[in-house]
Amino acid sequence: MRATRRLTLVAVAAASALSLSACLASPEQGGSEADDPDAPIVVGVSLPLTGDFAEPGKGVQRGYEAWAAHVNENGGLLGRQVELVIVDDQSNADRVASDYERLINQDGVDLIFGPFSTRLVVPAAQVAQDYGFLFVEPAGAAAEVFEQGFDNLFYAAPAIADDHYDHLVEYILALPEAERPKTVAVASMDDPFAQGTAYGLRDQLADAGVEVVVDEVYPPNTTDFSGIAAKIADSEADLLIVGSQYQDGVNLVVALQQQGYQPQMAAISGAPTNAEFPEAIGEKTEGILAPTGYTPTAPYPSNQEFVEFYEAEHGSPPAEDEANAWTTGQVVAAAVEAVECADPSPECQEQLVAWLKENEVETVVGPLSWDAQGRPQSAHLIQQYVDGEIKIVLPDDVKEADLVHPKPAW
């Protein structure tokens, strides 16, 4: 790891009880700029480093840390170094809210970045709203995030969950009728993001006449998928849709393989974008489709620099979680440099929010702009495992390979 990093990782014990102030943070309560203009800009983050969302949470952590290291090696923000204070919310919605209150009130951070998962983003965003903080988040894409009335929230990715599969819907509906899936089986974690991606595809296809023959929802802590897999296998559905995070997606795919189920098309959100996915399911990935907001080969101006820096740090290219975290940093940094402030005062935070509402930001996932509720105004790519490698297959103008249909056997 590079010695130039100035990062702080704070581990919070599971049993600790936080006594939090109800008053708003101000520069006098700990904002570093008020005490010393050369002090670091302190960024507070709560992430699920343990619990149900630990795997993608650690990816977001890697992305945040890489972004901070890169910024610090290139002069910092406003000429000041960046310091991260990262706490573990243990994938718990109550805890994440307490974490952000502590970061703002007791730790006196200058800025905050969002957590991973819609379940954690909503309570965290409410705290940010209550204290008047800019809230840019990397992984809260479910529609409900943007229906809460937050006016300080911005999602640092190309599209919300409901729209992730739009390009695949267009492809399927353009197929000759004889090749088009007639039936679909759906299984999703009881999670707003996972369900948003899965149901966005399910509903568009159902509206076009595709019959939904299985529609299962399972709790986040599910480990035994034999029953759901048996229902899907018995249905012999042409198209499989899975809304997952990581381990649940792996376990369900393995269970389906054991059942001998062979769909003509398999669309699985979440799990396939993780680098460990192929090994976890026995390298039987061929033909699996997944939406993604990021690819290391994207031609956007800052992406090559990001990929090179990340690979030098970790020895492998970044995945989507890391990219969305880096993007969060880019978005906040663009606002900070534009309005020339980074402190917890209401005046500074209001300026940061106002600037993002009116401007587009160049990022590693492409140019981003947002509507009044913080929804990004772009679209996700569709990727597929082709000849053992995951490649962009839709839309046509950026594809790296042709979409393979029907799907090869597991």
Structural class: alpha/beta
How large, in whole angstroms, is the Cα Rg?
Answer: 21 Å
Question: How many strand segments?
Answer: 15
* Helix content range: 25-40%
Widest sheet: strand ordering: 8-7-9-10-11-14-15
- What is the molecular shape? globular
Strand count, sense and barrel status of the largest sheet are: 7 strands, mixed
Distance between the termini: 38 Å
Order of helices and strands: EHEHEHEHEEHEHEHEHEHEHHHEEEE
Q: Count of DSSP helices?
A: 12
Provide mean pLDDT, rounded. 91
Return residue spans where pLDDT drops below 50 for at least 5 consecutive residues. Answer: 1-31
Q: What portion of the residues fall into strands of 2 or more residues?
A: 15-25%
Question: Your description of this structure?
Answer:
By secondary structure, this protein is an alpha/beta fold. The protein is 36% helix and 18% strand. It is built from twelve helices and 15 strands. The strands form four sheets. Strands 8-7-9-10-11-14-15 form a seven-stranded mixed sheet, with helices on both faces. Strand 9, helix 8 (247-259) and strand 10 form a beta-alpha-beta unit. Helix 2 (54-73) crosses helix 11 (320-339) and helix 7 packs across helix 8 (247-259). It is globular and about 65 Å long. The chain starts with 7 loop residues before the first strand and ends in a 16-residue tail after the last strand. Residues 1-31 have low confidence and may be disordered.
